[in-house]
Amino acid sequence: MRWDNLAENNANNSIGGAGALFAADAVTTRTFDTPEFRGITFHEIRARSIVNRVPGASRMPFEWTVNPYRGCTHACVYCFARKTHSYLDLDTGLGFDSQIVVKVNAPELVRREIASPRWNGAHVAMGTNVDCYQRAEGRYRLMPGILTALRDHANPFSILTKGTLILRDLELLRQAAEVTEVGVSVSVGFVDPELWRTVEPGTPSPERRLDVVRTLSEHGIGCGVLMAPVIPHLGDSPDQLRATVRSIAAAGATSVTPLVLHLRPGAREWFMEWLGRHHPHLVRRYERLYADGAYAPTWYQRRITRYVHELATEYGIGPSHRGTPRRLPGREPRPPQDGSGPGTEPTQLTLL
To answer: The pTM is what?
Structure first.
């Protein structure tokens, strides 16, 4: 495994900087002989920074992220983040699913970095690379400390997840929502159980994820659904889309945002290999559909989006309304240090 290009090479630890991710001698490798972690290797590191700026060319509707893990045991065959494992000379296929990098000092770093005079209180998005509530979180428990730090500084944040473990932190989410804007989205691209078992083998079932939406709503935390990915020729029939939107509405989601499968390098190769094994008759159709790059043609994306929005209206799912971020009593927002605004407002996340 190559750590050299990510190891410490200077003492600069600025927020959003391009410094080292961790010290070269600060990696501990562990395995756990329990059923839920059998076959998985954890690489524990002490990261140098955790609040990362999104590159300017990104399509993401937010500027800052916190990602306490690299790699993901959800093992979604389409996951766009697979390419990031190649930076460590790790395999982007099975290696991405089973070689998990854990930033064990993430909570203390979040607290330190958002307390910095240079930090302007911008919105922080989590779950934007890999799921912060994947199975590893059940053992490492990084999110409670991260949420506590964000709550204590009244810092707005959002979470996107396929994991049901987020309900463990329900009380922390409720407390944070009393002092700042909290956005939660659950990813449910389809409710077809057979499709789920083959493309998202390490995730809770769509039904259990919709139970998360229902539970959060019952506790006063509005929860949207990122209907992603809509998988061409496998999960995009009118009946499938209708069943999914109907289930999302029944769960009490505040909004639904469809997103068609995109296949970036790293994910594309792994997905197409899977497609050749399970649905070889679709390989040529996918090659044509994605001939121009990572994204399906605009006409196809628009057709899916229009139909899902029509279904959302039919089933009474209204648009989400953003609130105004609140601050702790007596605390004034810090002015930006670089002349920029305080970061983008939370919006429906579009990343799978």
So the answer is: 0.84
